[in-house]
Amino acid sequence: MTTLVLSRRNLLAAGSSVLAAGISGLLLPARAEGLAPTPSMSGGSNNYRKGAAIVDRIGKGGFWMSGTVRRAGDGAPLAGQRIQIWAHTTEGQEHEPQSHGATLTDKDGKFRLEMPQIIPIFGQPHGHLAYDSGEFQTVFLRPVMRSAKETSLEAHFVLQPA
Amino acid sequence: MRLAKATLIWAALATAICVPIAFAAASPLLAWRGPLYILAGFAGIVALGLALVQPLLIAGYLPGLSAYRGRRVHHWIGGALVVAVVVHVGGLWITSPPDMIDALLFASPTPFSPFGVIAMWAIFAVALLAAFRRRLRLRTWRIAHMSLAVVIVVGSVVHAMLVEGPMETVSKAALCALVLAAAIKVMADLWMRRKRATPRGESLARQ
Question: For the packed helices B138-162 and B35-59, what is the interaxial angle rounded to 10 degrees?
């Protein structure tokens, strides 16, 4: 039979270990989560066409869509990820095939695709981007340009494994 | 003199509505839109213009129209407003079904959509109420129509101001300000008239 000795030293040790476990229990999950995944934006998947081809440029170009793709948690850049892009541009409406294209991220997880000038459609000048390749969970983005006169637009993905 | 004033009022009204339409018609954005999308957009602008005419008609501010005639025209323009909204929404639906469905379900990312959709339902509700007007008590009808009119005016103006489209900003803002001002003026006049009308009985009784 063990006797419980409530000495001051025991009490201090037990108390501090409970305290330490409690604090780390509160802190650690937050650190493990790290960079949160990007949620899909409402309306992001509108006029999506599955499987847009990888192209050097959509149409005649003149406008730059760029961004980054990182992994949720540690934020590591993801290379070789296929990002699909479409918008209502000077060369066609959102749903038309010539308005769609795709590109791959480089070793730093960055992508950049030239496309025709985006113009306001449905009351906002905006673009659409999709990650829909299966390895990670699908994300649809719909960034809005601050002004219709801008000639570039950025969108950033943080993906979590499917 | 009266003729000059009448001409001036009608000319001002025509300018307020036609200038924004003319600016929109000259917008470079139209070059990249299909005919149906253009038609849908202009139906929206026309609807905004009709929203300016409606209170002026019912209050009898437009010269040359008797009270009876003004009321008749108000009914017809109300019908035209419903048609314009149907063309606006229908045309946009055909142009981009997912965007229109999002808007109608209040799931749209664009902040102006719910204002437009609420104004649309308010316009339909007024039209429906107007069809059954004779079965309603005058007071019920007035309260319902006035409250819905407030929703229509505020909803349409906010919707129009937030949309980035072919309308030119200054002429759009001017038309929106006039729509608001006309509605406020007519409602304030109606309220004052009624306020003056009710206590008269009391004040007479007191004498």
Answer: 140
CA distance B139 to A125: 46
- What is the per-residue pLDDT across B67-105, written as a single tens digit (0 to 9) for each? 899 999 999 999 999 999 999 999 999 999 999 999 999
What would the pLDDT profile of B127-165 be if each residue is shown by its tens digit? 999 999 989 999 999 999 999 999 999 999 999 999 999
CB contact under 8 A, A119 and B29: yes
State which residue of chain A sits closest to B40, comparing Cα positions.
Answer: A122
> The domain containing residue A155 runs over which residues?
63-159
Q: How many domains does chain B have?
A: 1
What pTM value is reported for the model? 0.84
- Chain A / chain B CB contacts < 8 angstroms: 52
Cβ separation A120–B32 shorter than 8 A? no
Question: Is residue B202 in a domain?
Answer: no
| Nearest by CB: B164 against A88, A93, A148 | A148
H-helix or E-strand spanning residue B135: none
- ipTM of the modeled complex: 0.82
Question: Could you give the number of structural domains in chain A?
Answer: 2
DSSP structure string for A101-131: EEEE--TTSEEEEEEPPB--BTTB-BEEEEE
CA of B21 to nearest chain A CA: how many angstroms apart? Answer: 17
